[in-house]
Design a protein that fits this description.
Layout lengths: L18 H30 L3 H71 L3
Length: 125
């Protein structure tokens, strides 16, 4: 029969952990955690490490990019200069065309005046 406060009939021996065993167990757990962390760190850096050949490739690509940017800047400068030249030529051509059209108008006007004068002179009358 079970009495309150009494031990059960089958007594199991409980083992109390003393201070030394607790320190050793904690040290082992911490050492295992350290080893797992170090292994994870090594694994991550093993897969993410950049090889020296890759660094050389990146430097080469950076140099090519720099050269391409310089070439682009030179092309933009050339195109701007060429556009300015063509705009200037267009302005000159438009001015010449305007002057030629004005001269043509004056010539037509003079031709009409001369025709009218000739018709008046040659009319009987």
């Amino acid at each position: 029969m079970f009495r309150p406060g009494a031990r059960p009939a089958t007594t199991t021996r409980t083992h109390r952990v003393n201070r030394t065993e607790f320190i050793i167990a904690t040290a082992i757990i911490l050492f295992v955690a350290f080893c797992l962390g170090w292994f994870a760190y090594w694994l991550i850096h093993r897969f993410t490490r950049v090889a020296s050949a890759d660094i050389g490739e990146l430097e080469r690509m950076a140099q090519e990019l720099h050269e391409a940017e310089e070439t682009r800047d030179q092309a933009i400068t050339y195109l701007q200069q060429r556009e300015a030249e063509l705009t200037n030529q267009l302005s000159q051509t438009e001015a010449e065309l305007s002057a030629a059209m004005d001269g043509l108008r004056e010539a037509r006007s003079e031709a009409e005046e001369l025709r009218a004068y000739i018709e008046r002179v040659h009319q009987p009358g």
